Amino acid sequence: MPAEEFVAGWVSGALGLVLGHPFDTIKVLGFFKGMSFPIASIALVNSVLFGVYSNVLLALTTTPHQERWTHPPVYMDVFIAGCLGGFVQAYCLAPFDLIKVRLQNQTEPRAQLGSPRPRYRGPLHCMTSILQNEGPQGLFRGSGTLMLRDTPTLGIYFVSYEWLCRYYTPKDQNPNSATVLVAGGCAGIASWVTATPLDVIKCRMQMDGLKGRVYHGLLDCMVSSVQQEGPQVFFRGLIINSARAFPVNAVTFLSYEYLLRWWG
Ligand SMILES: CN(C)C(=N)NCCC[C@H](N)C(=O)O
């Protein structure tokens, strides 16, 4: 099993998150200031995603990554490999994502004199509190919805990337850097646009349980969200998700492709 895809996925995920960090920091109002938590989570999850994707694609096509542009795989194989990568990544992402969402939705101001203390003091404190109050399964709250969100959308992610690269690249050539940047950025947007409706629901389910249970499952959460806020609820955060997705995924794919070419 080629391991370089995992390493390239880790490094490219780390580089992508440096660009995405300002967006995440805005969203979490400073609670998420340090880089260590995102590096540990996003880069690791990206490594799993790209590692699983490449190895599944290799198993389906028997074409090594060095020959992927000269012997391109069929889109159905790309989609299946992407979906499987998304499914596995969702499982690894679940606890990290829950911590991020809990910190993000904390409304108490940070350590201001006279104001109520925030529930969580940082990622580690958030994790230990969840373990204490909700048990180990609490860390996987909303993980089913996360899997439903990531399985098809990561298939879409890799298919859009492949399609755009092939469209703008002459036959039998490797895509150039500009093509990889644009295709990576657009693939990121395509995946986030399709992921946003379930992302909204996932976040609500991850917040559920903090002050007692509100929703009886995914469907109930969807129905009551639409009843209370209308169908536009599914597009909450679409603009910021897309604005973040372009630079993050442009850099992620560029560094991933270059690392793999450099390793031969
Ligand atoms: C849930 N979706 C849409 C995705 N995970 N899409 C792939 C992009 C991954 C990248 N690390 C990012 O955070 O944009």
From TrEMBL:
Highest taxon, organism lineage: Eukaryota
Transmembrane spans: 6-23, 35-54, 74-94
Main location: mitochondrion
Gene Ontology CC: mitochondrial inner membrane
Xref: Pfam families: Mito_carr
Membrane topology listed for this record: Multi-pass membrane protein
Repeat region (Solcar), residues: 73-167, 175-262
Keywords for this protein: Membrane, Mitochondrion, Mitochondrion inner membrane, Repeat, Transmembrane, Transmembrane helix, Transport
Record-level Gene Ontology MF annotations: transmembrane transporter activity
Protein name: Solute carrier family 25 member 45
Organism of derivation: Chrysochloris asiatica
